[in-house]
């Protein structure tokens, strides 16, 4: 794929990934053919900031985990009321990283 398209994609979507993942993503995107560009544009990434806000407001109900696609963990948090509050507080610190990891997994699923 053209480096200009790859750089444009990275500039527009860098907030959805960890900083150390960007060079690896760029390398994988440069190896793709131009036909994959349409598939790449159709990906809906989850915003880590939105996940954090949802976690702060309704994390005890597991809504933050449902939002990023962790259905099993969401059910677990819902049944235990956020792990009796402890799990909900821990998620305040890790939900943004978990969201970025899910975004990377979704990107790689489309790239393969």
TrEMBL record:
InterPro entries: TM2, TM2D1-3-like. It is a multi-pass membrane protein. This is TM2 domain-containing protein. It holds the Pfam family TM2. It comes from Mesonia sediminis. The chain crosses the membrane at residues 74-95. Keywords: Membrane, Transmembrane, Transmembrane helix. The keyword Transcription regulation does not apply. It comes from the Bacteria. It is found in: Membrane. Residues 45-93 form the TM2 domain.
């Amino acid at each position: 794929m053209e480096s200009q398209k790859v750089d444009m994609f990275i500039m527009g979507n860098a907030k959805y990934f960890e900083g150390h993942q960007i060079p690896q993503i760029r390398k994988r995107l440069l190896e793709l053919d131009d036909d994959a560009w349409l598939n790449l544009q159709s990906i809906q990434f989850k915003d880590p900031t939105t996940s954090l806000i949802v976690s702060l407001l309704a994390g005890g109900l597991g809504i933050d985990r449902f939002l990023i696609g962790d259905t099993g963990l969401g059910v677990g948090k819902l049944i235990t009321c956020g792990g009796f509050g402890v799990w909900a507080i821990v998620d305040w610190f890790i939900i943004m990283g978990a969201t970025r990891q899910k975004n990377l997994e979704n990107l790689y699923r489309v790239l393969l």
